Structure formats: structure tokens, C-alpha cells
Amino acid sequence: MTTSRVGRGGLRGPGAFVSCIEWRSWPTIGKVVRYLRLVLAALCLGAVVACGGSGGGSGAPAGSTQVHLMDFSFKPKDITVSSGKVVFFLVNGGPAAHDMLIADSTGKTVARSSLVQAGDTFTFTIANLAAGKYIFYCDVPGHRDAGMEGTLTVS
Ligand SMILES: [Cu+2]
Fold first, then answer.
1. Which pLDDT does position 28 carry in this prediction?
2. For 153, which of 11, 19, 63, 80 could close a Cys bridge (C-beta 3.0–4.6 Å)?
3. SS3 labels along the chain
4. pLDDT (0 to 100) of residue 148
5. How much distance in Å is there from the Cα of 142 to the middle of ligand 1?
6. Ligand 1 centroid vs 99 CA: distance in angstroms?
7. H helices of the chain, where?
8. pLDDT at 42 over 80
9. Chain segment 54-98, per-residue pLDDT in tens
10. What is the 82 CA–ligand 1 centroid distance (Å)?
11. How far is the CA of 56 from the centre of ligand 1 (A)?
12. Pairing status of strand 101-103 against strand 109-112
């Protein structure tokens, strides 16, 4: 490898091209940034798909509250979190699919997760949750009546 091309003004040769990307051409940097964003987006999508499709393996995100979905209960069933951005890491040990729906004291739905298939995990993020008392339950028909509900205190 030779680095003698670096710094040359023209666009000939790979050295000049690399130099151009790194130091010179803003439009080219824009393209690279867009490309990196695409790659990042693809990676994120891949992570979500992996999360939703294969289950296991992925750990709980930092700052998240882990909640186990079971037939037919939540563990823990009484949860306290701080107001603002709230992240639940839902772990479904199977065998049935479950979700998590959060409702305020009037019963109005505030947020709901995707359906989490047996053996899967799901990161359930609520962008901004106000302080107060909430209930949560599984919205799959029959599951709430079977015991899949709990209380959420946001302080
Ligand atoms: Cu359920």
C-alpha cells in the first residue's frame, strides 16, 4: 500500500477517492452519511425483525423494565416507573401469544404493544407517560379475564 496519492487534487486513483471522501467533497460526504443511515436503518430493522421472529438472545435495553408474559399473568403484576419515556422489555416464555395494553383510570387506552409470540421478546416504548395510576392487561380475547392484568404506577 502506498499513501503517496493522498492529497493529490485530481479524482484519479483510489487514494484520491478516499482522500476526497474524507476531507474534500461535502456532497460525497452527504452521500456517505445517507448510505450509513440506510445501513443503520437496515440494522435496526434487522434487529426488530430478529426480535420479533426468533426470540431469545437479545437482552433488555438499558433502563427498561422487564415484564414476563405468562399463561395467564404478568410478572410482576404491580409495576412502578418514573414518568416520561417508559420502556418495557416484554418476555414471552410461551406457549401463547400475548400483548400489553396500558389504560388510564378511565379505561382509555394509552399505549399498546405489538403481539408478542411465544418465546419472543418485544421492546415496548411509550414516548411520554404522565404521572398517575394506570392499569395494564393482555388484550388477547379471554386473557384479561383469565388473570392477565396488573397495575402501573407512574410517579
Ligand atoms: Cu395474553
1. 57
2. 80
3. CCCCCCCCCCCCHHHHHHHHHHHHCHHHHHHHHHHHHHHHHHHHHHHHHHHHHCCCCCCCCCCCEEEEEECCEEECCEEEECCEEEEEEEEECCCCCECCEEECCCCCEEEECCCECCCCEEEEEEEEECCEEEEEECCCCCCCCCCCEEEEEEC
4. 97
5. 8
6. 6
7. 13-19, 26-53
8. no
9. 344 468 999 999 999 999 999 999 999 999 999 999 999 989 999
10. 25
11. 19
12. antiparallel
Question: How much is the pLDDT for 37?
Answer: 59
CATH number of 65-154: 2.60.40.420
pTM for this prediction: 0.63
Q: Nearest CA to 90 among 62, 53, 121, 114?
A: 121
- Grid coordinates representing 24 are 474534500
What confidence score (pLDDT) does residue 94 get? 81
Q: Ligand 1 centroid to 146 CA: how many Å?
A: 9
* Cα–Cα distance for residue pair 87/93, rounded to 1 Å: 19
As a whole number of angstroms, the longest Cα–Cα distance in the chain is 74
